[in-house]
Amino acid sequence: MKPRVAVFDFASCEGCELQLFNLEEKFLDLIKIVDVVSFREGMKEHSDLYDIAVIDGSIMRPMDVERLKIIRKKAKTVVALGACACIGGVNKLRNQWTSENVRREVYGDANLEGNPLFDIFPARAVDEVVKVDYYVPGCPIDRAEFTKVITAVIMGREPRLPSYPVCVECKLRENQCVFELGMFCLGPITRAGCNAICPTHRKGCAGCRGFLEDANMDAFKDVLRKYKIPMDEWLKCFDMFNCKIKREK
Amino acid sequence: MKRNLNIHINHITRVEGHGSIVLNVKAGRIEKLQWNILEAPRFFEAILRGKHFNQLQSITSRICGICSIGHSLASLKATEAALGVEISEQTVLLRRLALHGENMQSHILHVGYLAAPDLFGADSIIPLLKNEHKAVINIVRIHRLANSMSDLICGRTTHPLRFCVGGFTLLPTLKELQSLREELLNGIDTLRNAAESIQAEVHHLPDFSRETEYIALTAENLYALYEGSVASTDTGIHPLSEYLSLTNEYLLPHSTAKFTRHNRESYMVGALARFNINATQLGSLAKEIAARFDLTSPNYNPFMNTIAQLVEIADSMEDSIAIIDELLARGLEEEQPEVKIRPGRGIGALEVPRGILFHDYTIDEQGNCSQASCIIPTNQNNANIQKDMEALVPTIMNRPQKEIELTLEMLVRAYDPCISCSTHYLNVEFT
Ligand code: SF4
Ligand code: SF4
Ligand code: SF4
After folding, report:
1. Which phi and psi (to 5°) does residue A56 adopt?
2. A105 vs B18, B46, B58: nearest CB
C-alpha cells in the first residue's frame, strides 16, 4: 500500500499549500508514490487514516493545540511545512505585543471574552507544541525541496537540509552582494536551500528558512560594521521571520 | 411533508481558509442558518505598527499566498501615496502585467481545481488528474502559464521579490517578454478548449438569482484592475477618499463580527461585480467566452462568478499581450526610484482576484508605519454569502439532504472566499 499523506493547515497564508498545486504536472508524479487522503484546501475526500501528516501554519489558540495533538497521535511522521510551521514565521511578529493589545488594535472594543475563536496565545511553531520529525523550511517552501523531503521520508531515508548559509549559494550564482547596493541581508546566517533566490532578485535575504544553529554571528557583525548598517534598522529586518520576543498577556 | 434538517458542514473543503455552514430546519422553518469563519486571527494590522515603510510590502504579502501580488501592490500603492512617490509609466505597465498573472493564476486555480470538480462530478481534481481528463490537462497548462508570468515579472510565483517602493528591483529582458508573448498566444486556444469542456457541464450550476449591490473599481478607458475610482451599481462613482463610507466595517450587538455594508444589507465584490460594472470594456476574446456562456451584464446569479472569472482570464491574457507589445515598442529602462521620507497617510486600492482591496497606511517622520488598515474582499463578501444562503435555502429545502449540502458548498465556493486574508477576523451571525 502506498503511504498515506494528509495535509493540515493552521494559521498561515496557505501559500505553502499553494506550492503543492504549483507542482503542476509534477503533482501527478507525487500521487503515483503517495495517496493524498486529506487536503482540505484542495479536496473533499477525507480520511483519518494517514501515515504522514504535513502541517502548514503556526499555532495560536488552545483549540488549535487540541487539533494538532490529535493529528500527532494519528500520524507516524509529522512534517512541518513552511516558515509558519517550522519557526513561527511572520506570525511571531505579533508576539511583540500582548494578546490584549493586538486584539484591540484589530477589533476595537468588541467584547471577545470567552470566545474560544479569539482565545489566543503568542504564536508558536509546530514543534513548540508537538514533536516534529522533518522540516520543509521557507516562506514559501521550495517545491522541489518538498518533493525531495517527502520522497526521502517514504524511502526511509533521512532528509537532509543544507547546513551552510545562503551566502554560499549566492556566491555560486555570482550575484552582486546586496550590501553593495545599500541593502540589508541575512544571507550570512540563514540556512541555504533556496538557491539564494532573494539576493538573485536584488532583495536582501529576510531569513525565512531560519537561522543556522552554528551561525557565525561575529563574522556577520563584521559585515554590518563594514557596511555601516544602523543597528535599529537591521534589528527590524532580523525580526521578520525569526522574532524571539514574547509578551504573554 | 414539513422538513427537519440538521446540517453542519465543518471546515468546508476546496476553499482557501476555514469556514463552516450551519443549517437547522424544524418543521419546514429555518431556525438557524449561518456562514461562519473559523480561521485563526493573524493580526496583520497590529504587526505593521512601527515597521519601516520598506518592509510593509513583504509583510503584507504574507496575508494571503494566493493573492500575494495583489496585497503587495495595494501595499506599495498605499506607501507611495503616503510618501508622495511618483512611479513611471513603465512601472505601471509591469505592475499591471504582474496583476494579470495573479488574476489568471488565482482564477484558474478556482475555476479548475476548486470549483470544476463539482461540475465534473468528482470530489477533487485528483481523480480527474489520474484519468488525464481533457479539461484538466488544459487547466493545468493555463495555471502553469500564469505562474510563469508571475515568475518572470515578480521573480517568484508566491510572495513577489522584484517589487519595491517606487518600482522594481530588477526588470525582465525584452527577450523574456517576447517569449512570454508567444506562450500567451498559444494559451488562447488552450483556454478556448478548457471553456468548451466547462460549457458542456455548466448546466450543473444552480439557476438562482438574487440582485444585490455590486462594487468594483472602474476606469475610463480600460477594464479596471490596477487603478480607478470606486463604482457601485446602486450609488454611482465615488472617489477613493470615500472608501471608508463605502465599506463601513461594523459590529452587530449580538455578534463579534466585523463585516461591511454600504447601500443595502450586503454587497458583492469580485469577478461578477467587475463584470456587471465594466463588461463593455472587456476585450474581444473575453466577450467571446462570455457569449459562449450567455453571460450578460447585469447577471444576478452568484454561481456565475466562476464563469465571470473564466471570462476575466481571457481578458487578462489578451490585455497582457497588449501590454507586452507596448513594452516591446517602448523598450525597458533601468530606473532609480526616488524615495524620500515624509509623514503622511496613503490609500492604495486595486482589484485582486476576489474583489476590491484597500490598504491604508499612516507613516511617521522616521518612515515607520504608525497605523494600518486593510479591507479585504472576502470580508466584504461575507454578508452577501449569508444573504444568498437565506434566499437560496427555501428554494431547495425539499431536495435530498446531500444535494442541499452540495449546493450550499458550491455557493460558498462560487465566491472563492479567501479566508486567510481575514486580517479582520469574522464571525458573521444573523439571528
Ligand atoms: S510560510 Fe509563508 S508562504 Fe508559507 S504559509 Fe506561512 S506565510 Fe504563507
Ligand atoms: S547578498 Fe546576501 S546572501 Fe548574497 S553574498 Fe551578500 S550577504 Fe550573502
Ligand atoms: S534568500 Fe533568505 S529570505 Fe529569501 S528565500 Fe532564501 S532564506 Fe528565504
Report:
1. -110, 140
2. B46
- Dump pLDDT digits (tens) for B236-248: 999 888 887 777 6
Residue of B215, B256, B211, B251 whose CA lies nearest to B236: B215
What CATH number has the domain bearing residue B140? 1.10.645.10
CA A144 – ligand 1 centroid, Å? 16
Asked if B301 reaches chain A (Cβ–Cβ under 8 Å), the answer is no
Using CA atoms, how far apart are residues B258 and B424, in angstroms rounded to an integer?
7
Contact status, residue B180 vs residue B238, Cβ threshold 8 Å? no
Classify residue B36: in a domain, yes or no: no
Residue B111 has pLDDT above 50, yes or no: yes
Q: Is residue B15 part of a domain?
A: no
pLDDT tens-place string over residues B150-159: 999 999 999 9
CB contact under 8 A, B124 and A240: no
pLDDT digits 0-9 by tens, B115-159: 888 888 888 888 887 777 888 889 999 999 999 999 999 999 999
The residues in B 222-281 lying below 8 A from A, measured between CB atoms, are 251, 256, 258
| Residue B5 resides in a domain | no
Q: Is residue B27 part of a domain?
A: no
What are the C-alpha distances in Å from B85 to residues A52, A246, B342?
Answer: 49, 35, 10
Query: How many domains is chain B built from?
Result: 1
* Closest ligand to the CA of A234: 2
Rounded to 10 degrees, what is the CA torsion of B182, B186, B191, B194?
-150
Give the global pTM: 0.93
- Ligand 3 contacts CB of residue A189 (under 6 A): no
**Cis upstream peptide for B337 (omega within 30°):** no
Q: How far apart are CA B142 and CA B108, in angstroms?
A: 7
Residue of B nearest to A63 (CA): B40
Q: Is the predicted ipTM greater than 0.95, yes or no?
A: no
DSSP letters along B247-303, please?
A: H-EEE-TT---EEE-SSSS-EE-SHHHHHHHHGGG--HHHHHHHHHTT--SS---GG
Q: Domain containing B347: what range?
A: 44-422
> Could you report the per-residue pLDDT of A168-220, keeping only the tens digit for each?
999 999 999 999 988 889 999 999 999 999 999 999 999 999 999 988 888 88
